[in-house]
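Quick one: sequence plus zinc ion SMILES, need structure tokens.
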Amino acid sequence: MLGDELQERPRPGLFAGEGLWPKHTRYEIVSVNGWPYVRPAAEATITWYRPLEHPRDFLRDFLAMVGEVQRTQEELAAISAAANDDEAVRRLMQRQDTAKAKAVLRFADRYGLLGIFHHYISYDHYIPREHSESGGEELVLYLQPGSIYPFGLAVPYVKYAKRFFPDGEPPPVGTNWFSDSFLHGYSESIQDIRYATNWLWHDVRLWETFRRGGFTPEDEAPSGVPWKWELRGITAGPIQVGLVFNGKLQLNWEFKSLIQAAQVMLLINMTTEEQQVRLCELPTCGAPYIAVHPAQKTCSPRHAAVLRQRRKRAEDRKRREQHAQETGPQEG
Ligand SMILES: [Zn+2]
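Reply:
Sure thing.
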């Protein structure tokens, strides 16, 4: 068949094999046209590790980073104040992203970048010379709906990859996407990280609402459907699970991005009674922590004391108001 020999080419590599994920020894923040990116430092070397071996630590640190990147309240206020001035809005967003890049850098130094490039690709396909627009062999990527690339779901590799190599040329077609030569200049913008983790953050907050509220599966969720339906919407992306002999027989998780790995860990976390990763219930904190006992509500004893004190004050205030309503206004 036409183009069969092209399809037999080595695939550039969609999955990280044997549950392994690449991590460089050091990362740095670079700014391209005012937008911050995180990428491996020039002299950094690559190592591989298994994110799913320490799911709780990973999930806690991942959520801390995502929480920082997704922090929106103050931003929305500031942006709506500057909303009439496009240039001011852009500068504001760039400044905020630059502050958030530090959280991504901290995370990357421990766990590597998120793999957003891989996250959205469903499959790839070589187009032979006679059928390609460019007149050369072309690798076309088929992206999932709602991906970061705004112009359609079938996109030439070179166009898509440009987003991840903002100040240089992407590695040539055929380079293994998990090789050192690909990953060395590979960069992720805070904008793309925010977009790609938005849904997971929504799921985490939904889960926290359910968990804290002490609801039953039949109770109504905020969206109006029973919680048991609502929670079924929390899923992990396409991950292959197989077996690998790694000293002993183990589950072999093949995932394309750390976001997918985190989604699996979130599902495991939700169905585990012990040592859940939770968000601190003190509103001014909200930091993720590993709960040592099931009743734990906050990240630390200090925040537990602050939370108790605040709740007591709120109750006292309510009681005083109720009392004032019942006793007054007295006719006089
Ligand atoms: Zn806290």
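The chain has two domains: 1-274, 280-326. The chain has a mean pLDDT of 89.
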